[in-house]
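Convert to structure. Protein one:
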Amino acid sequence: MIAASYMLTSCSDGTTYIKQIHDPLLYCKTVKKLNDIVLENNFPPMIASRNYAYANIAAYETMVAGNPQFQSLSGQIKHLPAMPKPEAGKTIDFALATLLSFTKVGNAVTFPEGSMMGYYDDLTKMADNVNMSPDVLKNTMDFSDTVVAAILRWSKKDNYAQTRSAEKYTVTTEEGRRGQVEHRGTVVLDKGTRLGEYKIERLIGVGSMGAVYEAVCTATGHRHAIKVLNPALAVVPTARARWFASATWRFAHRSAPAGRGCLAR
């Protein structure tokens, strides 16, 4: 009798969306969206880890606001400020807000620009389609945006932008260190550099074997991520083998759409 009463109440109070929106697998799916972009663009590990870290911290801090059992990371992670609090009297769906925060921060810290906003729109449309109240949806989106803004402000203090100049690599040949790579700060490819039909726009990140650049195809106008092997490593047979093995896997991978994530020597 109690169970039946609860079900009738749920159907009449506008909470029928909870079963779909609060499904834990939806968070897994959301994380995979960012993972697919990382794989498609062949981001170096330190760039990918930055993307995952900020997106997941934003999601966690959003979830914390709706659950007193969790403790904020503010004050535990260096320089992470206090996070925004929900406005009193406003109903917020914190499960959906968590997904939106992850998606929006993930979109802001990754490349190409706007790559996750289609999924963001899918989430809000799904909430609308399963009868989430327009007021609750708006409150949820607004609160998520306050957390996103706070996380992105914090992210700009990590010196990421200041350290995004490519590095020159020299291969040492002295005994005991043969084949090791040393780093020297210098720009490898300037904006406007041409690689075949591609024109370099900006550096995305530097990895242990080369750099990833944003480039524009002069024939189509489409933007691509191009990974360039550092010339100094071309003299190391094992480095060349790893590079071509990566290229073979990259283009054989099912998640790689046509015309994205090109590899260049």
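Protein two, convert as well:
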Amino acid sequence: MSPTEIPLLTVKDFAFSYPQRLADMKWRIEIPNLELHRNHIYSLFGSNMSGKSTLLRILAGLENVRTVDRSCKFFLGGSLIDSSPVKKIDSFRSLPVRDLMLLAHSDQMFPSLTVWENVAVVGNRMLYGGASEARHRLLGFLEKCGLKEHKVSPSTFLQDLSSGAQAFIRLARSYCCNSKILLIDEVTGQLDDSNASIFFNVLNEVLPLDAAVVLVSHHQRDHQIASDLAQSRCSGYTKLIINESETNGERLSCVQLG
């Protein structure tokens, strides 16, 4: 197997349930094998409360490790991340790399801080090339997405931007970190059709060619744009299913709700 064929991220024997629901087992995510490959876009489908956002938060290391099955293993670029039950998710948090970025509609944004400060809040070790290079990338990003034309600069306060414009600042965080795995959770939900197209066009421009994207959205429009984007980039495109509501795609799990 050549290095380009090794998945960016592999999760094996994965099972998750929130602590307060472990006893009745009425809500549980089970994934025997999940691979995120380079130059690939994944649309994650599922009904409300099926676990889409939870899965992305787990991959980003934001859920309590004690609720993850002990046999679960995580591989980054083919290398096993600490597989001990207590440390495996914490290893994601402590990795000295900028491989993975979660962009969520629930991201903590700081209205009283500037655009640059909202990007730099991820920490200097995550910024690609350090603060100076990341600020330079931010300037280019603002021009690519058209915000510069509206007098938006790194020193603009976030509270002076619309919710739609703030969706682009979330994407700027990933661009300034040069993330290779991008998890997008309902970020485009508040955008109209025109701005959603602009968002994905900018994503296409700033996304590394070898990156993997996982998209969660309740708008079929966004998944169609993502599919078209994959085709234009000559990328792979896969539908991932996290419940029984879809039949045309790769099934991740069987989730019980009750």
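Residues 83-97, 254-258 have pLDDT under 50 and may be disordered. DSSP finds seven helices and ten strands in the chain.
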